[in-house]
Amino acid sequence: MPVVGVFAILRMEQEAWESAGQNLQDAFQDLNASFLSTTKCSNDLIISACKFSKAKEMMELAEKMRQKLLTNSSAQSNSNDEELGSKQDMQDWLLSVGIVSPVTKETAGALYHQQLSRQLADYISIPLEQAGGMMALVDVYCLYNRARGTDLISPEDLLQACSLWEKFDVPVMLRKFDSGVKVIQTKTHSDDEVFARISSLAQKADALKKGISPSDAAFTLGIAPGLAKEHLQNAESIGILCRDVSPDGLRFYINLFNEIDPQNIYL
Fold first, then answer.
1. Helix (H, G, I), strand (E, B) or coil at 251
2. DSSP class of residue 204?
3. What's the CATH number where 82 sits?
4. Does the residue 50 lie in any domain?
5. How far apart, in whole angstroms, are the C-alpha atoms of residue 93 and residue 87?
6. Within this chain, do residues 102 and 153 fall inside the same structural domain, yes or no?
7. Contact between 160 and 120 (Cβ < 8 Å)
8. Are 167 and 225 within one domain?
9. pLDDT tens digits, residue range 134-177?
């Protein structure tokens, strides 16, 4: 006899779910088989594939690819634009996949902060490269915790892990600006290079008339406006820029009197 009523509706939904599940399993089996031979795959497919039976293998593969990118990040090559674009896409995918084995207090014990410090230095290298060599500490905290999934760490643990970088041979460091803002930057980051770019920006025709704002500097340097403001204030402190505070906001201008000694300004 035909099944009717609520039971029939539930049965139809159950059959639809079973059919959809089988189709997904078949699709991702094909994806797992072809994953090693393809470099063009959508981010959503990678994240979804990690939810199936091959999650561990794919995460291990992602970690190997991450290490390879870190090894080759500082090497010079003659790659064309298409290869560089593929590398950038791969970096974005790996950041979305997350961390394979997050360091926890249960697994590391007394060495928790030391192991956390090394893992954080390894993970943050690629995001720092994409952010121009410097990121605010609060941004690093959010990014790193997102990669850890449910194994979140506290701000105190993050700060202590960053403080241990002075004892380790890692390519990143913790820095504190005069204003108190804390950032993480690569050791190859050069303030002189940043000051040169800011000085060049401030001497353009439009900037000589209207000055430059932290947003203008952020666009040129490729960093957050908050960090750009810190760089502008540092440039002001060494005499490269001077400021103007008006109802239009804070603007910086090139300092035309930088040859004057600040200690003997009245002379």
1. strand
2. S
3. 1.10.10.10
4. no
5. 10
6. yes
7. no
8. no
9. 888 888 898 888 887 777 888 898 899 898 988 888 888 998 88
Sign of CA dihedral 186, 190, 195, 200: negative
Q: How far apart are CA 260 and CA 62, in angstroms?
A: 55
**126 lies in the same domain as 214:** no
**Alpha-carbon gap, residue 62 to 92, rounded angstroms:** 11
CB 184 within 8 A of CB 174: yes
83-135 pLDDT, tens per residue? 545 555 555 555 555 565 677 777 777 788 888 888 888 888 888 888 878 88
Q: Are residues 63 and 171 both part of a single domain? A: yes
- What confidence tens digit (pLDDT) does each residue in 178-193 have? 888 889 988 888 888 8
Does 72 lie in the same domain as 109? yes
Q: What is the mean pLDDT of the chain?
A: 75
Q: How far is CA 48 from CA 54, 146, 151, 161, 165, in A?
A: 11, 17, 20, 32, 35
Angstrom CA distances, 4 to 7, 9, 14, 18, 86, stand at 6, 8, 15, 20, 54
Closest by CA to 146, choosing from 54, 58, 47, 32, is 47
Q: How far apart are CA 46 and CA 20, in angstroms?
A: 19
For 35-136, where are the alpha helices, taking DSSP H only? 43-49, 55-72, 81-97, 105-108, 112-130
Q: Compute the distance between CA of residue 117 and CA of residue 159 in angstroms, rounded to an integer.
A: 9
Give me the torsion for CA of 144, 149, 152, 157, rounded to 10°: -30
Q: How far is residue 73's CA from residue 21's CA, in Å, rounded to a whole number? A: 40
Nearest to 179 by CA among 245, 246, 253, 232: 232
What's the structural domain count of the chain? 2
